[in-house]
Amino acid sequence: MAKKSIHLKTDLPIDMTPMIDCVFQLIIFLMISVDLSQQDLEDLKLPQVDHALPDKNVKKNRPIVNVTQEGKLIMKRKTWYDPNRDLNRLRFRRHLANIARAMPLKMDPDVKKKLPDDPLLLRGDEFTDWYHMAKVMEDCGLQNIMIWKIQLAVAESQKAKARNKALLEQAQH
Q1: Which of 2, 71, 76, 166 is most buried, with most CB under 10 Å away?
Q2: For residues 110 and 88, what is the distance between their CA atoms, to the nearest angstrom?
């Protein structure tokens, strides 16, 4: 028996709509996930310095306090204290106390107490009064909070970046 082969020629157009839908959904997902990764950082103009260390070994749940020019204290896009609206800092202090309780504790030999071991990142705008930054540090030292490790955020100036890059290249040759 001989086999018959049948070749049908049909020109079926390929529907690109499902593929385009998938690509748009992927783009939307990526845009949302990138935005969520930056939710702790307010849009502040950090003070510029000549020498700054890169922010390495960042813990995922590190508490970040953003201090605006007006003295507002913002954490994860939520205002915890506004000097124009709030009479005292009690709400912010309660929030800091909750954060401190959630941090891992380590025995401090000088104080002879277990203290929060993770640092708090304090970000202040370039034009923020130092008074507002000092008040946050004062809040961190309260008896029920005691977050004693504080890191300050600054930005390295472009001139310093270029100079440091040139020095690094020169040292490698």
Answers
A1: 71
A2: 31
Mind listing the pLDDT tens digit for each residue in 3-18?
A: 666 666 677 778 888 8
Distance, in Å, from the CA atom of 133 to the CA atom of 123, rounded to the nearest integer, reads: 9
Nearest-angstrom CA–CA distance, 31 and 12: 35
Read off the pLDDT of residues 48-100 as tens digits, 9 standing for 90 and up: 777 777 777 677 778 889 998 899 999 988 999 999 998 899 999 999 999 99
Largest Cα–Cα distance of the chain, in whole Å?
Answer: 98
- CA–CA distance from 71 to each of 6, 18, 129, 148, 163 (Å)? 80, 50, 8, 21, 34
Contact 150, 119 (CB under 8 A): yes
Q: Give me the count of residues in the chain.
A: 173
Q: Residue 8 in 3-state DSSP?
A: coil
Question: In this structure, which amino acid lies at residue 22?
Answer: C
Task: Please give the model's pTM, rounded to 2 decimal places.
Answer: 0.65
For the chain, domain boundaries: 48-156
Is residue 163 classed as helix, strand or coil in its secondary structure? helix
Q: In 3-state terms, what secondary structure has residue 20? A: helix
User: Is the Cβ–Cβ distance between 53 and 109 less than 8 Å?
Assistant: no
Give 141's DSSP letter: T
Helix axis angle for 130-140 and 90-102, nearest 10°, is 50
